[in-house]
Fold this protein.
Amino acid sequence: MAAESDLQNLDATDTAKTAPVVSTRDRVLAAVLEHGPIAAAEIGKRLGLTAAAVRRHLDQLSADSLIEVKRIAGRASGAGRPARAYVVSRQGQTQIGNDYLNIATAALRQLQQVMGDDAVQDFAARRFDSMAQRYRAEVDAAPTLEGKVDALVEALNRDGFVASTRHIAQNHPNPAMHSMQICQGHCPIQDLAREFPEFCEQEAEVFAELLGVDVRRLSTMAAGGHVCTTHVPVGRLKVLAQQQAAQRGEQRQSVAPRRTIRVSTRKQEKSS
């Protein structure tokens, strides 16, 4: 028993030695990456940090040019001033990981020069076809559109897109107004997509194919947005399904067979 206990303690020690240590600074950067534009107070609330600690790390990240401040109109911050919110800077996005992009961009430029714009479109389509194949079974397994969106986001997160969802107008009196937004806080090919927007277009087409509805891109980081945001009209599809179900019910009622009343021969003879 003692030997077994010593072995368990040794395993726990080895695990502690090999487990990656995530610094508070990295946690703050991850919060900005996933939820930006985000205010300092919201970061503190999410991470359980004091206001002083959040400001210290934000100042450090700003000094390293990894994040930048955005003034968000409509979020009043006293005296009618726009609120300060933080987003990951272009340098921060680059540092998070897209080392191969310079080579890829040069190769695509040459491909475009030799074979034309259609060649780049075909290349982007093939790249995202592999994404569709990897995600399809997981997304198809979800029984509802909301579930499919959540499954898609989980798959995107495994590939490092730092994705999340937001419900819009979920409690609106008109249920058709309910929508979901897929927000991607990191794009590993941001600089490439800035020069070749075909990659953004193909990604949106894959989302539409996987979800089975028309989606709309509201913003992309390649075009200067803080995040890549995709609009999914979940409420409109719900209302349409309800209307179709109601129509099918009406049709079944209209073609329902009439009940026939049979009078026995014995009763007929008796009455006569």
Observations:
- The chain has two domains: 19-97, 116-240.
- The two ends are 100 Å apart (CA to CA).
- Residues 19-97 form a domain with the Arc Repressor Mutant, subunit A fold (CATH 1.10.10.10).
